[in-house]
């Protein structure tokens, strides 16, 4: 096994990799550009495939303490509020996939990962910007930081990816997401269903669910826009604009948005499939190599799976790190590319796109709405049923 690793980026992917490596006795240092560690004030869906990895890392109890287990995956019509699809998650996931489906606040998961990583001896340097890599070293604020392995877990604007693949920059998908949380206590009782709910509509969709044991309602409101001029991909949004943008939607959503105190707008980017994810002993993971539209709630889950498979490959082929990284890429790329494509397809389904007022997505939702419980979950078997901790290498 390698003795030391330097990681660019202390996001969910970087910290999961740091913890997994440190548990194998590797000396790990993580460089994070932000002055302080933290995550955006929004929720995250942790599907069973992600929970299997986090469970193996020993984090089940801490996550359980801050999570919310949704009853159903539910699709509703965004204007009428009519139920279109209902699939039991709480009753089925543990039994069918061997792990639960949970909702967490990102900051809670981030804190849990950070604390576990530090306990395991991981060093985290904040205010440390990675600008690239050389054989044997990460370049951090003008100095070379040496380690046996370098990991680019620095997200969609990755400096490591930019150096490895200068012609494969991120591209705007024409989708904007408003996100934020509202204290449940500030809303009428029972306003938001206790589910992972997708409210579908023409040209947009809204996701609602509870986090922090039910204390907060998280929302993501997606709209199609081709007028994004801001070179930044994230900016503060005005709650009044959010209300205006979704004015024609169901009254319960308007009540929810009326209680929003602060919201951020995210321009959603992805990038073309990269030819490879490693260069010598430098490797990519998470959004740095496969940013995924959030319409399958799988981006962070894929970063978490990457970390697990990467560490297993390094153990398995301990004598040849570049070969281990090549093997990791071959194992991971088909799955992440497939999920990126599935997420893109969901845009058309959730936004009722296409001729005749979205007749095809409406028909698909109608059919899905008539599947009995287990059958409704079946399309997700390949996603949630996967176990990165035991998948054949
Ligand atoms: C609206 C929305 C909803 C989503 N919902 C879900 C969901 O429910 N479930 C799910 O699984 N996924 C979801 N995702 C996707 C998920 O957020 C991402 O896939 C995940 O955060 C990627 O993790 P990462 O660690 O690869 O990258 P990031 O989270 O982007 O972390 C990268 C880190 O690197 C740091 N960094 C960047 N550049 C440098 C540098 N040069 N030097 C040092 N540090 C640097 C950054 O500051 C950051 O801390 C959602 C995404 C969006 C936009």
List the defining traits of the structure above.
single chain, alpha/beta, FAD/NAD(P)-binding domain, 6-stranded mixed β-sheet, 13 helices, binds flavin-adenine dinucleotide
Concise overview:
By secondary structure, this protein is α/β, with parallel strands linked by helices.
Bound molecules: flavin-adenine dinucleotide
Number of extended strands = 19
Please indicate the count of domains: 1
Largest sheet: 8 strands, mixed
Q: Judging from the principal axes of the Cα atoms, what is the shape?
A: globular
Tally of individual helices = 13
Strand arrangement in the largest pleated sheet: 5-4-13-14-15-12-17-16
Question: What class, by secondary structure content?
Answer: alpha/beta
CATH architecture classification name: 3-Layer(bba) Sandwich
The proportion of residues forming helix, as a percent range, comes to 25-40%
Briefly, what CATH class?
Answer: Alpha Beta
By CATH, the superfamily comes out as FAD/NAD(P)-binding domain
Distance between the termini: 16 Å
Proportion of residues in β-strands: 25-35%
Radius of gyration: 21 Å
CATH topology label = FAD/NAD(P)-binding domain
Chain-averaged pLDDT: 95
Q: Enumerate the spans where pLDDT stays under 50 for 5 or more consecutive residues.
A: none
